[in-house]
């Protein structure tokens, strides 16, 4: 009986992990993973590096939600998402492209990482328009690229520190920021921050530019309240999203009209995020076991 239960649990674990991987990385995730992980060649980072540890952890799930919410508070970044990403018609496609970029630039060979960066730079050259305030934007603008970069890595770092169970030391956190800046610099970010102090300073400098436009609030509703998922999958997703919301500063939650009580974030949202990251970590371990 014990063996049957163990086998049944293992099957559930593997099935859940495979479903998560397909959502995040696409139906061809296994083939693309083989290219990233199995190709011989020099890599920028090793499994011991902070950037590898952060980007490989399940805390990236709530961290990714936080990053999207924070990024959309810049009207130009939000306009680019609304006008060019097709996030409503193909929300998982956008997530999968981001996932592939992070995987290639963190875990892939230098050659693969540089090819991926060049491909994204080419896309950025074509993404332009006007934001909700009528100001022209261009996705390759270094100032806009910097905002997207710092909002992203700040969110990933906060999530890892909160939900991984093995937070980075201050020195390791500084190293993470510097290592995450390697790909960002090649993508077009000028002088990306190389320490947590520098990261926080850049984030603070962007505060006067941030605004919750109607497009941003609509995107937040879509991301949090109306996810494109079956009803049965929504509670698990909402737990992940709760973790992401808890990582936002109170002023960010207020701008997006999300719960801003520190007590609620600390006592309800953050535990949900921690539990969801643990579940994702468990499920992905089943996929890793099958692959080996």
SSE diagram, text form:
Elements: H1 2-25, H2 29-38, H3 50-55, H4 60-71, H5 75-85, H6 91-107, H7 110-126, E1 128-130, E2 136-138, H8 142-163, H9 170-187, H10 196-206, H11 214-224, H12 234-247, H13 250-255, H14 262-291
Antiparallel strand pairs: 1-2
Helix pairs in contact: 1-14, 2-6, 4-8, 4-12, 6-7, 8-9, 8-10, 12-14
Mean pLDDT: 83
**Helix content class:** over 70%
Alpha carbon gyration radius? 19 Å
Strand content: under 5%
Number of helices: 14
How far apart are the termini?
26 Å
Count of the separate structural domains: 1
Shape: globular
Broad structural category? mainly alpha
- The largest beta-sheet arranges its strands as 1-2
The largest sheet is: 2 strands, antiparallel
Q: Compute the number of strand runs.
A: 2
How do the helices and strands follow one another from N- to C-terminus?
HHHHHHHEEHHHHHHH
Low-confidence stretches: 1-18
Describe this structure in words.
- With 292 residues, the chain is mainly alpha-helical.
- The protein has one domain.
- It has 14 helices and 2 strands, in the order αααααααββααααααα.
- It has helices at 2-25, 29-38, 50-55, 60-71, 75-85, 91-107, 110-126, 142-163, 170-187, 196-206, 214-224, 234-247, 250-255, 262-291, and strands at 128-130, 136-138.
- A two-stranded antiparallel sheet has the order 1-2.
- A hairpin with a 5-residue loop joins β1 (128-130) and β2 (136-138).
- The longest helix is centred in the C-terminal third of the chain and has 30 residues, at 262-291.
- The model is unreliable at 1-18 (pLDDT under 50).
């Amino acid at each position: 009986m014990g063996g049957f239960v163990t086998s049944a649990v293992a099957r559930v674990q593997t099935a859940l992990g495979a479903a998560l991987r397909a959502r995040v990385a696409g139906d061809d995730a296994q083939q693309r993973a083989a290219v990233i992980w199995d190709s011989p060649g020099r890599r920028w980072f090793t499994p011991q590096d902070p950037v590898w540890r952060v980007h490989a952890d399940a805390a990236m799930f709530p961290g990714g939600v936080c990053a999207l919410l924070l990024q959309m508070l810049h009207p130009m970044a939000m306009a680019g998402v609304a006008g060019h990403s097709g996030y409503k018609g193909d929300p998982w496609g956008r997530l999968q492209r981001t996932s592939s970029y992070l995987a290639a630039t963190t875990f892939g060979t230098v050659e693969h990482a540089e090819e991926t960066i060049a491909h994204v730079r080419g896309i950025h050259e074509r993404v332009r328009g006007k934001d909700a305030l009528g100001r022209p934007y261009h996705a390759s603008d270094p100032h806009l690229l910097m905002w997207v970069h710092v909002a992203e890595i700040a969110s990933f770092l906060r999530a890892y520190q909160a939900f991984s169970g093995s937070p980075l030391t201050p020195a390791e956190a500084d190293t993470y920021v510097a290592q995450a800046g390697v790909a960002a610099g090649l993508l077009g970010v000028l002088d990306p921050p190389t320490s947590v102090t520098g990261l926080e300073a850049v984030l603070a400098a962007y505060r006067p530019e941030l605004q919750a436009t109607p497009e941003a609030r609509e995107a937040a509703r879509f991301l949090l309240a109306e996810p494109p998922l079956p009803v049965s999958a929504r509670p698990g997703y909402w737990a992940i999203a709760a973790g992401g919301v808890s990582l936002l500063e109170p002023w960010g939650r207020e701008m997006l009209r999300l719960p801003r009580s520190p007590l609620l974030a600390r006592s309800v949202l953050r535990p949900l995020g921690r539990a969801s990251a643990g579940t994702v970590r468990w499920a992905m371990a089943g996929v890793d076991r099958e692959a080996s």
